[in-house]
Design brief:
Blueprint (H helix, E strand, L loop, with lengths): L1 H10 L3 H17 L3 H21 L33 H29 L15 H4 L74 H4 L24 H10 L12 H18 L3 H16 L9 H16 L5 E4 L13 H13 L4 E7 L3 E6 L5 H14 L5 E5 L8 H9 L7 E7 L4 E6 L14 E5 L6 H11 L4 E4 L7 E7 L4 E11 L16 E2 L5 H15 L1
Parallel strand pairs: 3-4, 4-7, 7-8, 8-11
Antiparallel strand pairs: 1-10, 2-3, 5-6, 5-10, 9-10
Length: 559
């Protein structure tokens, strides 16, 4: 029985192959006396059948042997031209298909190795069309609201690409609190706006309007906590370069190349006074003040006559004691005004227009498979200006089974927007955090707003995507929801900015940036300053969305 099957299998082979190897293969089969070897030979015959027809076209037809060279009677060899080999049409088709398959597998292998082995982030390219508008756009909530763009441009050099003011929620900020940004270059060359009224974040002459013309550096006007903006700051290694930039934008009449002993003493006294009065940690403030006094007493500053060098030296010494990279001394060679002007109506209008142009930094609103909502936004803008669009985005996802907030590219913003978005995740007013102002010795609490009528998200699973670039208010949103056990964080540890800093004028040329407001969570009694917010599920930022989708799917399956 098996021999008959084997002979039938040989008859299915190409003619040339059967003529050349058929007898030998049948003889080998006859020599196998036991059934198991015969089954093995039968299996090999099936594999050979597929291989010969797929890969060996030379066996498909009878090919006459090539003529051999014959020797002429005169002893000279004769030469014959062989017919050129031309592959059959079937062979060409098989070759093309095999090439396409190998090419696709190679591309997949390269992409997989980039993402999962080399951890190279490959951004998604999304093309806009009339049919995709519904997936990406946030519909206006009222007829008065301008039409919301389907997706703002993701230009890193955009003026608002790294907007990061953060003011406590609960009260409407005064016009002076609106973050009218100025351009500042961070360590990666990305423009980061500097909100007015927070010269703590200013490390160039962009601190005040027309600074490039007058060369001035300026501290912020005194604002109460709810009026202050919490923003990003330059890294320590940028301080010296920033001081050089501040000193460079001067007019010839105001240039001051050197400082004397009297000015050094005045700056040290001013630094000690501001640290002692405003720094969030009184004990650490005393240590920094003592260190500066000891350096002055030992004569470490006597040979320093350059303002830039002196500011950089004081910065390093304060940071060596406190390990707080946001304590910075700033020098400018021009005279700083005592009272810089607050933002004008034109400034506020420009901010409003910029928020309208960029869709208030809401980038993607989409419902993923299994009815999982996805909201990616790259700032927490002022809720008084962007609250309508934020509410429209949340309303669009009101019927989802779970929701994912993507904060991987979010550098922060206003606490009133943190409270507004968090309101949709609770069915009652909830205490988020508190802002302690050291200088005024006051504490202001931030709560969610009253429940939103018709809201269905209060009991839905929440996932937040984080990265090392998640900053300031975005960290507050993540940390507060984690402490309340309301969200699962997926991604990387955040940057670690939990204090608010303000620039304070010392004299005509020096100002000091002092972290003076501390954010405290009511559950942990602390914050994420210096440590960052730890994710619940640690993965690379590029893999966070896929991981969160799987977690949401498992969570929904258990419900």
């Amino acid at each position: 029985m098996l021999r008959s099957l084997y002979r039938g299998l040989l008859r299915l082979h190409p003619p040339a192959f059967r003529e050349r190897f058929g007898g030998e293969m049948l003889a080998i089969f006859d020599q196998a006396a036991e059934r198991q070897p015969r089954f093995k030979l039968l299996e090999d015959g099936i594999v050979s059948l597929v291989r010969q027809w797929a890969l060996r076209p030379e066996f498909w037809y009878d090919i006459s042997p090539a003529p051999t060279a014959e020797t002429a009677s005169d002893g000279m060899p004769s030469f014959y031209t062989l017919d050129p080999f031309r592959p059959r049409t079937a062979a060409v088709v098989h070759g093309v298909l095999l090439t396409v398959v190998v090419f696709c597998l190679t591309c997949f292998a390269i992409r997989y190795s980039w993402i999962h082995v080399l951890h190279v982030h490959i951004p998604e390219v999304q093309f806009e069309s009339s049919s995709s508008f519904e997936e990406h756009a946030v519909a206006p909530a009222s007829s008065q609201e301008p039409e919301i763009a389907s997706r703002p441009a993701r230009d890193k050099q955009n003026l608002f690409s790294s907007s990061s003011p953060f003011s406590p929620a609960g009260q409407k900020p005064a016009p002076g609190a609106l973050p009218i940004p100025e351009m500042r270059q961070n360590g990666e060359g990305i423009s980061r706006p500097v909100p007015p009224g927070r010269a703590a974040n200013v490390t160039t002459t962009a601190a005040v309007p027309n600074a490039a013309q007058n060369g001035a550096i300026a501290p912020a006007a005194e604002l109460n906590p709810q009026q202050q903006a919490w923003g990003g700051s330059a890294e320590p290694e940028q301080t010296y370069a920033a001081n050089q930039a501040a000193a460079g934008a001067t007019s010839g009449a105001t240039r001051n190349a050197t400082i004397d002993a009297a000015e050094r003493h005045r700056v040290i006294d001013g630094a000690i006074a501001n640290l002692t009065k405003y720094y969030v940690d009184p004990g650490m403030a005393q240590k920094m003040a003592a260190a500066l006094g000891a350096h002055e007493k030992s004569g470490d500053y006597d040979a320093v006559t350059d303002g830039l060098v002196f500011a950089d030296l004081l910065t390093r010494q304060m940071q060596d004691v406190s390990h707080d990279k946001y304590v910075v001394m700033i020098y400018g060679a021009a005279i700083a005004p005592e009272n810089p002007r607050p933002p004008t109506a034109e400034d506020i209008s420009a901010y409003r227009k910029e928020m309208e142009r960029t869709n208030c930094r809401f980038e993607i609103v989409r419902v993923l498979p299994r009815n999982v909502g996805y909201l990616k936004f790259n700032s927490f803008p002022d809720a008084d200006i962007c609250g309508t669009r934020a509410a429209a985005a949340m309303a669009r996802l009101n019927n989802v089974n779970a929701i994912i907030f993507d904060l991987r590219d979010n550098p922060g913003g206003y606490a009133n927007m943190v409270a507004l978005l968090a309101t949709h995740l609770f069915d009652r007013p909830t205490h988020l955090n508190a802002f302690y102002n050291r200088g005024e010795n006051t504490t202001e609490q931030s709560w969610t707003l009253p429940p939103v009528p018709g809201n269905k998200l209060a009991d839905k699973p929440v996932f937040i995507l984080t990265s090392h670039a998640t900053f300031s208010a975005a960290e507050a949103f993540s940390y507060d929801l984690k402490m309340l056990q309301r969200a699962t964080l997926v991604g990387e540890t955040t940057s670690g900015r939990g204090h608010m800093a303000m620039g304070r004028r010392i004299d005509d040329h020096f100002m000091i940036r002092v972290p003076d407001i501390k954010v405290t969570n009511p559950i942990s009694k602390t914050n994420w300053e210096g440590t960052g917010v730890e994710p619940d599920v640690r993965v690379k930022a590029a893999d966070a969305l896929v991981t969160a989708e799987k977690l949401a799917e498992n969570k929904l399956r258990q419900r």
